[in-house]
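Researcher: Sequence recovery benchmark, item below. Answer with residues only.
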């Protein structure tokens, strides 16, 4: 959590500074190209990541690990050739072809892509030893921030920013390979012996991963070609404020995934920890949505500048969508743990089709705000769908009760009152009503509170916080 948070903060400042220095339209063009490369990268991913994580969590398996890397290398080569053939046939501008090829390198070396580099980090995850990958993610982010600071000094443009966006990941990429061998004794040997089994396991997730990245990135591309670069830039700024929040459910999954895999193999009871994770993710996402609601325009203009003020409403819609997306993120990993990943593809297909249809209807009239509406409606639909699927396979997690409604209404009221104060007072003091209401309305019950404080090694606080 610490590593993800620090990386997020540094990357956050890097992107917001780049958005300011480059301007809305150029930033929109960059975001469009990045969205295209991210979509293409999922053909390389092919859904192997979660399967590999699951298998390594059971115990060391270098054969499957080497097979996954080998398959990714083969898929990357074919994709690179195909991408450039398509660019030549379509007569893309030479600058865009160059930038796309530079960005393609991130598929291999960047932790931001959650692709090839993520595979290298998987053994550390499975061994619950995440210090090295997190330190290297912070290094990547720091190098990018340093590189971005040179843009206004030397009046550098999008070609420089794209290059530094890629090369800032290179030292961390090299170092994680070294540490993988040194600390965990993992050695890579080119092999495709287990590829049939791995591809069979990964196929449902491959379709799911591709559909999900389309769900996340297609909005920017549609805005670019239906409305223009300015609109794409505005939406890209809003998305940059919200998409990084995925590190929160991602961190929870990284922590509990190996434990749940092992418990599932034993046939042990897991409902308590599953319910607690869902409840915690709900708590965090609601807090983020509520706190951002009453000062969203000030937050957006403070971060990106007045040029990006039209992104305020879109950003707010995307923040509220996180309530459903957090739930969906963990639910999908639960399906993988229970070897029900075929439902992941069904879920992704439904919300992508629904979201795409809403985009086509809403973008011409409502532009980036229409995309925000489409995102929140499709995310809600996905939550309802996953709720039904999880109940069908026997996962019960009914944590919502009457006091939860009182808690939501209470924080809305008191944080609204705080919003009458300036932003620098509003943000830090918002934590006070949140803590008080959570405590007195028992958002987390006694058993959950005891578990949380034991988990963070703060048992000594329990006697002061738990009421008789």
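Model:
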């Amino acid at each position: 959590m610490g590593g993800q948070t620090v990386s997020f903060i540094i990357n956050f400042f890097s992107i917001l500074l780049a958005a300011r220095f480059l301007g809305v339209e150029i930033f929109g063009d960059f975001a469009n190209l990045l969205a295209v490369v991210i979509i293409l990268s999922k053909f390389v991913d092919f859904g192997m990541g979660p399967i590999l994580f699951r298998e390594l969590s059971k115990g060391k398996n270098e054969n499957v690990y080497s097979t996954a890397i080998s398959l990714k290398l083969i898929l990357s080569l074919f994709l690179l050739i195909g991408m450039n053939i398509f660019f030549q046939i379509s007569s893309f501008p030479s600058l865009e072809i160059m930038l796309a090829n530079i960005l393609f390198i991130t598929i291999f070396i960047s932790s931001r892509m959650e692709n090839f580099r993520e595979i290298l980090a998987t053994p550390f995850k499975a061994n619950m030893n995440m210090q090295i990958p997190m330190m290297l993610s912070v290094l990547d982010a720091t190098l990018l921030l340093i590189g971005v600071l040179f843009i206004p000094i030397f009046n550098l443009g999008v070609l420089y920013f794209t290059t530094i966006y890629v090369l800032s990941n290179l030292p961390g990429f090299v170092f994680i390979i070294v540490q993988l061998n040194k600390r965990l004794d993992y050695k890579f040997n080119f092999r495709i012996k287990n590829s049939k089994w791995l591809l069979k396991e990964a196929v449902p997730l491959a379709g799911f991963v591709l559909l999900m990245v389309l769900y996340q990135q297609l909005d920017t591309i549609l805005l670019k070609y239906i409305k223009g670069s300015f609109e794409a830039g505005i939406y890209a700024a809003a998305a940059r404020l919200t998409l990084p929040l995925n590190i929160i459910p991602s961190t929870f999954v990284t922590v509990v995934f190996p434990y749940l895999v092992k418990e599932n193999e034993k046939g042990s009871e897991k409902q308590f920890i599953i319910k607690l994770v869902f409840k915690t993710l709900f708590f965090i996402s609601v807090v983020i949505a509520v706190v951002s609601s009453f000062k969203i325009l000030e937050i957006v203009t403070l971060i990106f500048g007045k040029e990006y003020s039209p992104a305020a409403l879109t950003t707010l819609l995307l923040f509220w969508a996180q309530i459903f997306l957090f739930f969906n993120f963990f639910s999908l990993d639960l399906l993988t743990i229970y070897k029900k990943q075929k439902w992941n593809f069904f879920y992704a297909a439904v919300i992508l089709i629904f979201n795409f249809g809403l985009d086509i209807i809403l973008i011409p009239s409502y532009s980036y705000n229409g995309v925000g509406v489409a995102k929140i409606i499709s995310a809600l639909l996905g939550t309802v769908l996953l709720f039904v699927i999880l109940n069908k396979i026997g996962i019960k997690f009914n944590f919502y009760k009457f006091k939860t409604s009182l808690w939501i209404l209470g924080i809305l009221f008191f944080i609204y009152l705080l919003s009458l104060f300036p932003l620098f007072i509003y943000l830090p003091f918002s934590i006070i009503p949140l803590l008080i209401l959570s405590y007195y309305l028992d958002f987390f019950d006694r058993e959950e509170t005891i578990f949380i404080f034991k988990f963070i090694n703060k048992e000594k606080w329990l006697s002061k916080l738990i009421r008789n």
